[in-house]
Amino acid sequence: MFLAKVVGNVWATRKIPILKSRRLLLIQPMDPITGVTRGKTVMAVCHSIDAGIGDAVIIMDEGSSAKNHLGTGPSPVRTFVFAVVDQVQQEDQIKKYT
User: Fold this and answer.
1) pLDDT at 72
2) Which of 44, 62, 69, 94 ranks highest by number of CB atoms within 10 Å?
C-alpha cells in the first residue's frame, strides 16, 4: 500500500470483461507530507472510488487484494485505487489534500 497522486486517465476502446465498468488512472507515488511526486507513473484500476486528476489516493499494489476488493476471480489486475485521502498527519505535521 502506498500514497500516490492521480496524474492522468487511460482511455481504452476495448477492455477485457473484468475492466468494462472500471476506470483506468495513471498514478505516481508521492511523499505523504510534502506532496512531491517521485518514482514511476503506473496504471491503476478505479472501481467504486470517485478519484480524479490531482487527487491523493491510497493504492493497493498486490494481486490477491485486488481480486478480493474488486470481486473478480483470477485477473490481470494488480494495482488499484483503494481510497481518496483527505489529509495525512505525521507527528505534528498535517498535510490536507481536499
Assistant:
1) 65
2) 44
